[in-house]
């Protein structure tokens, strides 16, 4: 499970150093793709295979499902981190997420999310209060 918040930097070649605590989990390969709110989703390869399998279950008669899969999968890039735990984020994905140098990597359970640090701080500021004030069940069975 991926947890926490980390603030690595992208190098001049667009490479990201994975936080040390996640390197072993990602050493066999990972997939980086577009996520919601203009962040990137980063999955270990085996977890991405599960996500792709769930997508295959979606009805191809659903335009919304087709649209989602097209955007999600067309932006996906499989990568293998080097011995130092770095991998290159393709230019099109860096552009999509507005990534420059300062990035924030957050644990989101089965995946990591990569955010432009300014965008993450704005998102968190806008949503933290509503999180604190949540009085009804958002995720079934959680509370």
From TrEMBL:
It comes from the Bacteria. Residues 5-47, 76-119 form the SpoVT-AbrB domain. Its main location: cytoplasm. It is found in: Cytoplasm, Nucleoid. InterPro entries: MraZ, MraZ_C, MraZ_dom, MraZ_N, MraZ_sf, SpoVT-AbrB_dom, SpoVT-AbrB_sf. Keywords: Cytoplasm, DNA-binding, Repeat, Transcription, Transcription regulation. Transmembrane segments: none annotated. CDD domains: MraZ_C (cd16321), MraZ_N (cd16320). Pfam families: MraZ. HAMAP family: MraZ (MF_01008). Forms oligomers. This is Transcriptional regulator MraZ. It comes from Intrasporangium calvum. The gene is mraZ.
